[in-house]
Amino acid sequence: MTQSSPLIKSNIERAKTGAFKQSTIYPAKDICIVTCLDPRTDPADLFGLAPGDAAVLRNAGGRVNEALIDDLALITYLAETKLRTGPIFEVMVIHHNKCGTSWLADNEFRSGFEAVSHLEDEALKSEAVVSPADTVRLDVAKILSSTILSRKMTVSGHTYDVDTGLITTVLEAAAMPDL
Ligand SMILES: [Zn+2]
Prior knowledge:
- This protein is of the alpha/beta class.
- It has helices at 5-17, 43-47, 66-83, 107-114, 121-127, 132-145; strands spanning 31-36, 54-59, 90-96, 154-160, 167-175.
- The mean pLDDT is 97.
- Bound molecules: zinc ion (ZN).
- Residues 36, 38, 61, 96, 99-101 line the site of zinc ion (ZN).
């Protein structure tokens, strides 16, 4: 018995229902969510989403870094060339308070982690989500300024409060600027 064993059992029960067949490759609610991998910020839980409702990209902090832009580039290209003829999904970037990445603002923690990481001090410092409203603005701006992303998507910025369970919109959905 391992920690994953009960999950595998649940999977067998879930597969029997056949309900998973309703999900499609394109998100049913026309939404792609970028958020932290923190267990408290599961988008299905935050918004009461059903299976297949949203595409979800999660990393530490929900940060828009090079790897995330590369993933977004691929899925937006796929969406606009293979899955949709008109506009494609809105990308919702969500940062939250009390984020584990805020430890990266602590000098001792950061230098300890730097020793075991391939990232340097400045890069680690910039990963910290201390003020979610500020970092979400920065990250939405990064998406808007990218030249490799589909022009057919829109992007919005939000914060999530782990104490109240509420989302606050910081930046309403904006269209990608023309190149
Ligand atoms: Zn977090």
